[in-house]
Structures are given as C-alpha cells and as structure tokens.
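Example 5.3 — Sulfonate transport system substrate-binding protein
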Amino acid sequence: MRLFRFLRYLFIASLLCCFSVNASDSLRKLKVSLLLEHEAFLVWYGIEQGWDKEFGLEIDLSVKDVAGIDLMNDLKVNSGAWDVAGVGCVPAVIGSKDIDITYIGVGNNEATSTEIMVRPDSDILKVKGANPDYPEVYGSKETIHNKTFFIRKLTSASYILSNYLEIFDLTYNDVKVVDGKLSDFVKYMNDGNGDAMILWSPSTYEAQKDGYKSVATAAQVDAIVPVLFIASGEFAKNNHQTLARFLAMYDKAVKIQKNDPKSLVEPYKNFLKIYSGKDFSDDFCLYDLKAHPVYTIDEQLKLFDSESNMSAIEKLERHLISRIAMISMQPDAEYDPKEYKHDPSDLFLKIAKGIVDSKK
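Solution (predicted structure tokens):
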C-alpha cells in the first residue's frame, strides 16, 4: 500500500512539473455542457473575464434549460456531446449506467435551493412538524396522500421526493408522480393541474413570484444534492491538464463568490437575462449566490480524499446507489451496484492546485 501511494505521488508530481500555464501554450479546446443555473454562471463569468484564455483554454460553453439526466442522455446518444458537464449527484450516479464518466470536481451544493413547492392555499401547508424529527417540514400523511407531484425523474427531484414521503411513512404508491420538463411546471400549476412541484433555482424564483410556497428544501429532508463536474471517460484519460485548467479557472470564480458575492450580482443578472430571457432582481441574485455554497480546490480535495478512508464523494455515491430502487421509482426491480459505480479521482484537483499555486 505504501509503495502504491509513493508511486502515485511520483506520478502526480511528474504531471505537475509539466503543467504550468503560460501565454505561449496553444489553447486547449474544451466542450462544456451545463444547466441553466448557478454553476454555469461561474463558468460563464470566468470566460467573460478572459480567464479561460489565461489558463490556456478555449471553452465551447453550452448552457441548456434542461435537467442533468438530459445531459447524461446526450452523452449516451453521442459520445462526443461534451467533454465536461455539470449535473446533480443523482443523474451523475443513477443516470450513468452504461456511460463512461469520471467525477472530477464539485460545482456547488444545491440543498437549500431545491424545493418542494405548492399553491398558497394547499392543505399541505396547514400542518408543520407532523414528524417531530423534521420540525420545519410541512405536510402530513393525510394532506399528502393522493397528491400529484410534478418532477423530473432521475434527478435530485426523485431523491428529494422519496425522502419527503418517507418522513410520513408514505411511498410512491400513495401519490401521483408526473414526469416533465422543469420549465413547464409553473405553467401546469397555474393552469390548475397538479398539487406540488419540485424545482431548483432560478425556477424557484419564478414560482415564488406567482405566489407558490415552499413545504421543504432538500436540506430539510436530508437530501444531499451537490452538483458534480464530470468528464467523459475517454477524454479524462487523455486530457489531465485540460481538465485541471478548467477546475483552476472555476476556482478563481469560487473565491470571488466566497469573498465578495455582491460584486457578482450584476453579471449574474446579465447571465440569467441572456440564457433565460427573463429579468431577475438584485435581491434574488444575491440570495441565490449565497444559497449555493461553493468549494475551493483545497476544500474539494478534502471531499475527494480517500487516502485513509472512503472519501465523502465515494460515500455519497454508495448512499445513492443504495437508494436506486426508491429514486428510480421501481422498488421491485433488481440492480447491480457495480453498473453505477465510478471511481472518483482527485488527480485533476491535485494538478489544478499545482496550477493555482504556481500563479500566486
């Protein structure tokens, strides 16, 4: 084991020696596909600031108003659809069957910005803390039974709903679940359809403007929902430095958000206007930035650290795999956990740290 770690150290050290970034380097092309949400803004902001070129990258950024499972399906259909994607942990793990990917980093934590929302007159809001272990969660066995929930299946929404139902000793058999596109849910509800929907920002903002109320966040139902940066397997094998440079660029935006989130409000508004066509208030943008905890490279390395024990990322993967039956809404189906397991690698973060440290 010691020999393996020593050899691994030498391998990483040799890579770091080769991976300084300077202006004479030819730009490395990188196809990045992200969802219309917070982490995409930080990448977009970095490109707007010219940091991609600073780190020797030429990023082809695609921002889509879809769900993470849709990006996974893009790669399944076309192995060259993207080199890097940012998706929630559920589609990254549960939606990755038969797809060769590698986890390379963490975009943010969406546990407080993903919510179950209902109409203001919903009887679900009439009961709070029915389960004393969850005093902030609205609803009861009686008020939730037979309700119709709009969700995007095989995303964090499935995970959150399964946790929410379990709090009240309910299952999917006790409610009606309708799969659909996130951006359509508010319209469906406004038209009088359904009883509840699971949204993440910025869609939550649109729902709040129309009067919808939150009955629980992901965090309040013990759902861990970080956004993971993943790379297609073949690209990851052959482009260590390119991926590390992407993480180093992202780290620069992360540090600004941590130290001065107010400075990002105006560019965040611009980003949302460009990609959604909608106007968002200063208050929402500042709130949303603060509602998405982000992690520096050093903090991410701790999440990926498996030197002595299973890493936090590996534990999250194992936890989600153990809940495949509930998350996929097929409680009687049989699954082979090995088909969903991907070995998280801290290699890219370690190289990125070397790049960042060399620029200090």
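Remark. The chain is about 45% helix and 15% strand.
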